[in-house]
């Protein structure tokens, strides 16, 4: 405390001494002033010196006033933070201490602060111990550099605080975790933090026990539940930190989370916060969770049990998420991110038991669980599909409407994700759904779910399969659309669109009835009618696509439909309506072709207007780099976020707000490509406007808009090329050449900088389209070199979107050929990566065709062969290996003998792929082996024994028809290249036994050509003479196989005709053929 009276000291003399030249006097004066600073009258006396006659004295007084004020403020803050009885005020004062300390501590003006911290941490008063935690948090937030040397001590103090008897001290310690994290910089810190994690788990365990005991404040919240929430939040913050702060305790963390989530006595918010930990682990550490098989099983069991909980009595679906929905979300994430083989068995065991329960909540949970795992566990669900559908069809007859509704939705989800197997059960599923609607007494919610299930089911049916159901379906949809249930109109129109798409031209008899209904809904006024209006517009586009302009009902109406869609843009300001309108115009353009040309100027202007709108908060910056402005998660590039957007950014891309305008822009951008394809001359006339639109969309922050631009760019380039009279590969006009140059540069940029795989795949596919359409004559040599380099980069895994993600520290990494992604079997990212590799693979034959074999062969052998073979390595995903095998075959086929140097490396890998589990891989590998052996017989010769042995296995009756047909083609090509040097006595009967081919009939040509060549040579004919009867029988079948290539059929006929003149024993064999085969052979031989 300051003294009441100032000592009898001459303040003016002290100030004068401080300003003098006598160093000793100045030091003595400064010491005296410092001792005076604690007196109460010191500050008022200094303030009076601000009016001193001497300017230097006034200036010095001002400096001393500032110092005195600061010192008194610091003293007062420490006194108040120690003595303030009210918690909220104490926190505010602690924040003020942190703000003042930011300047005072670095200047070494507040040595008392650290002493205060040490005293508070060791104090016997809980209020003082809380103050220590509050001050630690404030100082770590504002003075990280100053606190860094004290992190070890702070961690020890916080760990001790979490065992404190005072909940307020524990709370303050937990709130200090977040500002502490950036200071955890060494291995010692990490190890000490592991102790803090253990203390947090202990605090949560004690709080859970307190909250769930009778009278412990379970349902009413209170301090224990608040503490649990803080523990979960702190653990989640630690989990998202780059260092492995939770790794040793991850199972214990999840055990705690499951215990909290499963405690029915707790509030919903507390349980949901605990499940956030499970969400994080499922998304970002799935491998670690998958290793904990028992823990994973307990997690699935706990979530299934939560799904059985009844809705709270005071449940309000507008303001809260009930426990069953929380559990369903978590179960969905487990199914999506962990192997289905580990998640589904527990789910299925639960469903089969719960479906038979007398409790409707359990029966509802059985359907709900199957709903949420349908996508992630699609593969194991296929094996249980008959039983699962039987369970759900039984639930459709349940006496409880919630059970029936959940079952309907589950059937819809299976129809979406368990394709095509689910369609085999249409005779059981569709009648059950239709009968339930037709039975009446169906609420609107149940009606909408039933229509959704029908919609999802019929969407992928074939015209032949859906035809028997057309009458009941159209009757149902007509009744719903003419009924008063406005909420069901959207679902009914969506279902109608699916019926139209599935039925194709078989829908024609219903067009007269449906067209007026759709025209009514597409012009319905009011905001409430917008969802149905959008679906009606979509359905009209699909109707045009299905029936075409030749339909007598729809054809004449098409111009009026286009006019109505165009007019609708001005009727109401709705991004969703404009999105559906752009999509419908694209469908109509594809159908009408040049008939759409008069509408292109207006449609293009509307597309440009859509793309010029502002669309949300944009975030740009390099992912994880210094100065990054990315506000999204830095821990994963997972695309399963709620807004459908990937917040991870790279190379200047990033978008953290998904709006309807983004969907509108993507639709408008795709529509531009449709206009260019349909009406090239009209699009060329608007090329300047459309090129500017696509250029802007190609650099848009959202990946869907970029992908749409990448898809449309080559279509506009080729439209301008065709409009100037250019054919594929012909010299391009100056306008087309200039546009192509700009397009190629735009399309090459994503490979270097775009983080989104789908957008890059679209860019690579677009490059292939430009190269194929314009050829070397339409592109500069430098651009072609850039395209070749881009293909090599993608195949090597060096595109920006293929940067290895190191979030999961136990990832195994990628294999040869680059690409560090490690995708699960059901991971959407794996499908996108396959699309990207497929697009890059398509570039290779396109380049070969554009520049010619002689120019491309050295590029292929030096730049592309290595990365392509890398994609054939065993550690690559099955789909990628199949793509690589197919690409290798296409390139070698185009290059011919120039590709011979590739044979030595390629054949061993292709022979291994002949034994792959996937039949597509075996098919592609067989085709590639045949091409390589045909184009490089000398290099292939050492591998012939192994190759023939591997191919022989593909002729088994149980083999996939496509793989067997390509094996026949491969053997045929080997015979064409090597002839009698092969063991034809053993080969021919196997080859003839595979004829006629069943699926890939194009492979009939090399098979017939090879057999014809063998029969034309007397020596080899003699060797295969015992096999003439089955060979002639096979050729007879081929002669009448209309789907077989005409060249192969003629080859068979002419071979037999020539053979008949030199081998008399052939005549009776030909005479024994059926009459239609004899007649076909005669006609083909003479044709």
TrEMBL record:
PROSITE patterns to which the protein is assigned, alphabetical: HEAT_REPEAT (PS50077)
Transmembrane segments: none
Start and end residues of each IPO4/5-like TPR repeats domain: 87-210
Gene3D superfamilies: Leucine-rich Repeat Variant
This protein's GO CC annotations: cytoplasm
Primary residence: cytoplasm
Domain of life: Eukaryota
Comp. bias regions, Acidic residues: 635-646, 802-813, 824-834
Region (Disordered): 614-652, 800-834
Protein name listed in UniProt: Importin
Lineage, top ranks: Eukaryota, Viridiplantae, Chlorophyta, core chlorophytes, Chlorophyceae
């Amino acid at each position: 405390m300051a003294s009441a009276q100032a000592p009898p000291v001459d303040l003016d003399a002290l100030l004068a001494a401080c300003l003098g030249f006598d160093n000793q006097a100045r030091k003595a004066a400064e010491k005296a002033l410092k001792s005076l600073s604690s007196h109460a009258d010191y500050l008022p006396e200094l303030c009076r010196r601000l009016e001193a006659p001497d300017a230097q004295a006034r200036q010095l007084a001002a400096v001393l006033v500032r110092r005195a004020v600061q010192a008194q403020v610091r003293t007062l803050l420490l006194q108040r933070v120690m003595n303030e009885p009210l918690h909220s005020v104490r926190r505010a004062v602690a924040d003020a201490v942190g703000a003042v300390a930011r300047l005072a501590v670095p200047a070494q003006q507040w040595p008392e602060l650290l002493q205060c911290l040490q005293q508070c941490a060791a104090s016997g008063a809980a209020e003082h111990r809380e103050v220590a935690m509050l001050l630690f948090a404030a100082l770590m937030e504002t003075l990280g550099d100053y606190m860094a040397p004290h992190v070890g001590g702070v961690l020890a103090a916080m760990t001790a605080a979490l065992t404190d008897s005072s909940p307020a001290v524990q709370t303050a310690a937990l709130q200090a975790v977040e500002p502490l994290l950036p200071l955890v910089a060494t291995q010692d810190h990490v190890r000490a933090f592991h102790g803090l994690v253990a203390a947090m788990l202990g605090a949560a365990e004690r709080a859970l026990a307190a909250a769930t005991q009778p009278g412990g404040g379970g349902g009413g919240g209170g301090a224990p539940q608040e503490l649990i929430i803080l523990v979960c939040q702190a653990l989640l913050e630690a989990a998202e930190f780059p260092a492995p702060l939770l790794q040793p305790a991850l199972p214990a963390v999840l055990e705690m989370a499951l215990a909290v989530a499963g405690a029915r006595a707790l509030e919903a918010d507390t349980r949901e916060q605990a499940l956030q930990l499970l969400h994080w682990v499922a998304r970002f550490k799935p491998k670690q969770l998958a290793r904990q098989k028992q823990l994973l099983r307990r997690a699935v069991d706990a979530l299934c049990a939560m799904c059985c909980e009844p809705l709270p009595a005071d449940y309000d679906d507008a303001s809260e998420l009930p426990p069953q929905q929380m559990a369903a979300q978590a179960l969905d994430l487990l199914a999506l991110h962990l192997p289905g083989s580990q998640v589904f068995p527990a789910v299925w065991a639960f469903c089969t038991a719960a479906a038979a329960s007398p409790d409707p909540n359990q029966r509802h949970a059985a359907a709900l669980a199957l709903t949420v795992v349908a996508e992630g566990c699609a593969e194991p669900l296929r094996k249980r599909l008959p039983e699962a559908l039987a369970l759900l069809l039984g639930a459709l007859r349940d006496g409880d409407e919630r059970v029936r509704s959940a079952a309907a939705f589950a059937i819809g989800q299976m129809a979406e994700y368990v394709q095509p197997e689910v369609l085999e059960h249409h005779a059981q599923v569709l009648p059950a759904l239709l009968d339930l609607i037709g039975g009446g007494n169906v609420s609107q919610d149940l009606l909408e779910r039933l229509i959704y299930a029908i919609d999802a089911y019929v969407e992928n049916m074939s015209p032949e399969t859906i035809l028997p159901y057309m009458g009941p379906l159209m009757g149902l949809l007509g009744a719903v659309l003419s009924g008063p249930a406005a909420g069901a109109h959207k679902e009914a129109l969506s279902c109608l669109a699916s019926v139209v798409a599935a039925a194709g031209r078989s829908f024609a008899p219903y067009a007269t009835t449906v067209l007026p209904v759709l025209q009514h809904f597409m012009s319905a006024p009011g905001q409430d009618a917008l969802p149905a209006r959008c679906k009606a517009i979509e359905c009209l586009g699909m109707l045009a696509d299905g029936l075409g302009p030749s339909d007598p009902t729809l054809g004449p109406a098409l111009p009026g439909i286009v006019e109505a869609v165009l007019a609708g843009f001005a009727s109401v300001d709705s991004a969703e309506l404009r999105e559906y309108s752009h999509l419908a115009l694209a469908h109509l353009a594809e159908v009408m072709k040049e008939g759409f040309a008069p509408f292109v100027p207006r449609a293009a202007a509307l597309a440009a207007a859509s793309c010029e709108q502002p669309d949300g908060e944009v975030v740009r910056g390099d992912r994880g780099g210094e100065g990054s402005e990315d506000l999204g998660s830095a821990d994963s590039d997972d695309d399963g976020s709620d807004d459908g957007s990937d917040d991870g950014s790279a190379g200047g891309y990033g978008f953290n707000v998904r709006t309807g305008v983004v969907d509108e822009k993507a639709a408008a951008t795709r529509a531009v490509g449709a206009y260019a394809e349909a009406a090239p001359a009209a699009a060329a006339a608007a090329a300047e406007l459309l090129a500017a639109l696509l250029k802007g969309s190609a650099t848009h922050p959202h990946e869907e808009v970029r992908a749409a631009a990448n898809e449309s760019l080559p279509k506009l380039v080729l439209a301008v090329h065709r409009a100037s009279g250019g054919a594929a590969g012909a010299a391009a006009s100056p306008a087309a050449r200039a546009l192509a140059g700009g397009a190629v540069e735009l399309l090459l940029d994503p490979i270097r900088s775009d983080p989104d795989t789908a957008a890059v795949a679209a860019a690579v596919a677009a490059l292939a389209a430009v190269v194929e359409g314009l050829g070397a004559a339409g592109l500069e040599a430098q651009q072609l070199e850039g395209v070749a380099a881009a293909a090599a980069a993608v195949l090597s895994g060096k595109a920006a979107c293929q940067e290895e993600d190191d979030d999961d520290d136990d990832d195994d990494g990628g294999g040869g050929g680059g690409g560090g992604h490690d995708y699960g079997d059901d991971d959407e990212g794996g499908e996108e990566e396959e699309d990207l590799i497929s697009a890059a693979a398509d570039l290779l034959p396109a380049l070969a065709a554009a520049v010619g074999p002689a120019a491309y062969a050295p590029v292929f052998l030096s730049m592309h062969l290595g990365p392509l073979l890398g994609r054939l390595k065993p550690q690559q995903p099955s789909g990628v290996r199949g793509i690589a095998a197919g690409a290798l075959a296409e390139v070698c086929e185009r290059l011919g003998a120039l590709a011979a140097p590739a044979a030595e490396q390629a054949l061993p890998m292709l022979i291994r792929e002949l034994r792959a589990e996937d039949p597509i891989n075996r098919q592609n590998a067989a085709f590639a082996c045949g091409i390589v052996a045909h184009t490089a017989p000398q290099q292939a010769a050492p591998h012939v024994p192994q190759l023939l042995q591997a191919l022989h296995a593909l002729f088994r009756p149980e083999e996939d028809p496509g793989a067997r047909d390509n094996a026949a083609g491969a053997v045929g090509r080997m015979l064409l290249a090597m002839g009698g040097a092969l063991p034809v006595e053993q080969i021919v009967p196997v080859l003839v036994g595979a004829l006629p081919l069943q699926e890939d009939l194009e492979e009939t040509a090399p098979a017939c050509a090879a057999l014809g060549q063998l029969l034309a040579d007397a020596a080899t004919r003699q060797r295969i003479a015992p096999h003439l009867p089955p060979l002639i029988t096979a050729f007879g079948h081929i002669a009448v196989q209309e789907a077989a290539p005409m060249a192969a059929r003629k080859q068979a006929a002419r071979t037999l005709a020539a053979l008949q003149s030199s081998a008399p024993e052939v005549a009776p064999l030909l005479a024994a053929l059926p009459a239609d085969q004899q007649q076909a052979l005669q006609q083909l031989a003479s044709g």
